TrEMBL record:
InterPro entries linked to this entry: GalNAc-T, Glyco_trans_2-like, Nucleotide-diphossugar_trans, Ricin_B-like_lectins, Ricin_B_lectin
SUPFAM superfamilies: Nucleotide-diphospho-sugar transferases (SSF53448), Ricin B-like lectins (SSF50370)
Cofactor: Mn(2+)
Family note: Belongs to the glycosyltransferase 2 family. GalNAc-T subfamily.
Cellular-component GO terms for this entry: Golgi membrane
E.C. number(s) listed in UniProt: 2.4.1.-
Classification of source organism: Eukaryota, Metazoa, Ecdysozoa, Arthropoda, Crustacea
Domain annotation Ricin B lectin: ranges: 454-582
Source species of the chain: Hirondellea gigas
UniProt name for this protein: Polypeptide N-acetylgalactosaminyltransferase
One Pfam family in the UniProt entry: Ricin_B_lectin
Length: 587
């Protein structure tokens, strides 16, 4: 099938011709979209003969028997309205084991109806919005590899149950070479006998391609005006599709994400969320997606809490895009394998090349967040790292230095040939990454541009020298800052900086001093940077002291050894209060 994006048709040199082929699965992964073969059954036409009718009858009986097994497991009303369910007895014991394999509670999922209801989690204001009766049509593309049966089927039913069917062209399932038995013939039969005719189509890839090329294969087959991508373990909410189609009708270069509600991996509770509060997408310099607050400027610009809200990046799995625009803006990078990176790549690309990326607050879709990937990574490659290196090489200009600062092992990595993607960027005459930072993500902290000093923060009062260190703390929560022997490489746990606004900070978190009324040293802890000075303002003196302004205390290692937490005490001319950064941008 032809597609309008010329760059996509040509084979990507260097991807197929990867010279080392350690095993068969690697070989499979180095194919590109042009090699994606579809199974013959995908386009097969029924043969009309009496013999065939008999066969069909047999098949029908077999199908009904298989579905009856599933249906007997279902407990009526369980999990309705997205309520949490806690299993007990033997089930509860079995769940522990199943979670280790499936990364979610499959036992419970199998007991919950594939048609269960979910709570309407939308802002009240949403019910007052109205949508055009002539919206563009949508193809919902659901990709999967070895997804468990019941979440996949529930995803399909939730789309059928809660979408305006007149605007739903079809649901296109893309099977990325699964080998679970039930995803074979049984799934074909389910589509044939249990789903409305003509609404659901199944595309089977003949080798494992990963989610990026699986989505490309789906997009290639889609006929709807709009492509809506979903993961294979989602439940859509009330009127989820209308806001997406309406916005694309208004602006064909708007790429849209719903608010992503949480379906608990253990209780399968559909969390109704926190009223009108939601976050948008950011990123870390190590190349990971993060959630960030909507900026005050954006709150002002959008005008209403239910208006399209600009998002610097997207999580990646759930989004809507005009089909022609998808190809025009470069589809996806076919050189990306398995999982990871494609979401930031598309985010940067869309913004830099003239589109917009927005959260539609009245569109909500639940997603089961799993704590690990319950599928294989052929070749055991760090596909997230390699894919992200590809995007850094194409889209981040000089700012890729920050990515490699956090991921030095990837700098000389084998990210392959990216010349096609660079050509695309040139052809589309996209803005540069600096423009993206200045205009789309001005809050993003650039450690080596917005600091007086950065690098490791060293103190040599003891031997060996100690450095400030996160001690592997979870940076999403507040934590006490520690000390550790200074690393010579791979030291991202020791990156610190003194920002132009006086924060002693890391990428997202800033140092504060625990208030205490005793004379004992006060703890220094890290909390989300608030950009409002006060408790997060520090001053670096000529003598190398780091003075916390609101408490008048100095950062001190006194009495500390590696692995201990750092503190702040009364300022004194002592070695334990003398600090050196690796780099200074002022003299
Ligand atoms: O090789 C593969 N082939 C596939 O078809 C690997 C995966 N897949 C399928 C898989 O069955 C699933 O349907 O691709 C989909 C995504 O895989 P997940 O569910 O393992 O990914 P995730 O939810 O952990 O990760 C998020 O980031 C990914 C980056 O590559 C993708 O963009 C996912 O779609 C994305 N999911 C979401 O954005 C949902 C919200 C999560 C958040 C935050
Ligand atoms: Mn997912």
């Amino acid at each position: 099938k032809n597609n309008p994006q010329p760059g996509i048709e040509a084979p990507v040199p260097g991807i197929i011709s990867n010279n080392k082929l350690p095993n068969e699965q690697d070989q499979i992964l180095n194919h590109n979209i042009n090699d994606i073969n579809l199974s013959p059954q995908f386009n097969s036409k029924p043969i009309k003969s009496e013999h065939r009718f008999e066969e069909e009858d047999q098949e029908w009986k077999k199908a009904m028997a298989l579905f009856a097994v599933d249906e007997r497991m279902v407990v009526q009303g369980l999990g309705d309205m997205g309520r949490a369910v806690h299993l007990s007895g033997a089930d509860a014991v079995a769940v522990e084991e199943v979670m280790k394999v499936e990364a979610f509670n499959k036992i419970l999922s199998d007991k919950i109806s594939v048609n269960r209801s979910v709570p309407d989690s939308r802002d009240q204001l949403c019910t007052r919005l109205s949508y055009s009766s002539s919206l563009p049509s949508a193809t919902v593309i659901i990709i999967f590899t070895n997804e468990a049966w019941s979440p996949l089927i529930r995803t399909i039913h939730s789309v059928l149950n809660r979408s305006p069917l007149q605007h739903l062209d079809e649901i296109l399932l893309v099977d990325d070479y699964s080998d679970r038995v039930e995803l074979g013939e049984k799934l074909d039969m389910y589509i044939k006998y249990r789903l409305p005719p003509g609404k659901v189509r199944l595309l089977r890839l003949k080798s494992r391609h990963g989610l990026i090329r699986a989505r490309l294969a789906g997009a290639n087959e889609a006929k709807g005006d709009v492509l809506i991508f979903l993961d294979s373990h989602c439940e859509t909410n009330h009127q989820w599709m209308e806001p997406l189609l309406q916005r694309i009708k208004e602006s064909s270069s708007a790429v849209l994400v719903p608010i992503i509600d949480v379906i608990d991996d253990k209780t399968l509770e559909y969390y109704a969320g926190n009223g009108r509060y939601f976050q948008v997408g950011g990123f870390t310099w190590s190349g990971h997606f993060t959630w960030i607050e909507v900026s005050p400027e954006e709150e002002k610009r959008r005008g209403s809490p239910v208006a399209p809200t600009r998002s610097p990046t997207m999580a990646g799995g759930l989004f809507a895009i005009d089909r022609n625009y998808f190809w025009k803006v470069g589809g996806y990078d076919q050189g990306m394998d398995v999982w990871g990176g494609e979401n930031l790549e598309m985010s940067f690309r869309v913004w830099m090349c003239g589109g917009t990326l927005e959260t539609m607050p009245c569109s909500r879709v639940g997603h089961i967040f799993r704590s690990f990937h319950p599928y294989t990574f052929p070749g055991n490659k760090d596909t997230h790292g390699l894919n992200t290196a590809r995007l850094a090489e194409v889209w981040m200009d000089d700012y890729k230095r920050l990515f490699y600062m956090y991921r030095p092992e990837l700098e000389k990595g084998e990210w392959g040939d990216v010349s096609e993607r660079r050509a695309l960027r040139k052809q589309l005459q996209c803005h540069d990454f600096r423009w993206y930072l200045d205009n789309i993500f001005p809050q993003k902290f650039v450690l080596d541009e917005q600091s007086y000093a950065y690098g490791r923060l060293r103190n040599n009062a003891s031997t060996p020298e100690l450095c400030l260190d996160t001690l592997q703390a979870d940076e999403k929560k507040r934590y006490d800052m520690g000390m550790y022997n200074c690393h010579t490489f791979l030291a991202s746990s020791q990156y610190m900086s003194l920002s132009h606004t006086g924060e002693l900070r890391r990428e997202e978190v800033c140092a504060e001093v625990q208030k205490s009324h005793s004379l004992h040293p006060s703890k220094v802890f890290m909390a989300k940077c608030r950009g409002e000075k006060e408790e997060q303002e520090w001053i670096m003196t000529k003598s190398g002291h780091l003075l916390h302004k609101s408490t008048n205390l100095c950062l001190d290692t006194v009495g500390l050894q590696s692995m201990a937490t750092v503190s702040a005490t009364e300022c004194q001319p002592v070695a334990s209060q003398q600090w050196w950064f690796d780099h200074y941008t002022i003299s």
